[in-house]
Amino acid sequence: MKDLSVRMPDLPFGSEVDTPQPSAPDEAGSPYLRIAADLRAAITCGALNGGDHLPTVESLRGRYQVSAGTVARAFALLKNDGLIRVSRGKRATVEP
Fold it and tell me: Residue 84: beta bridge partners?
């Protein structure tokens, strides 16, 4: 039976090794960013005006095939940008 406790050998004295940095996740294709971008575009082009209700979480879940948490994350992004108003138990609305 082989010994499974094999370790890497030490580097030669004076050697330098470039440690690879972890790559940042590619958020360009993240579903919540896509949802937020689509809703932002609808608001800025006038398809959704101040006081209008946004589509429901369930309808967005079905349209984008994502979880409710992903839709909530998109809503949080738009809320932080001051574009929508979100309140528990009520539908999200476009800020006037």
Answer: 94
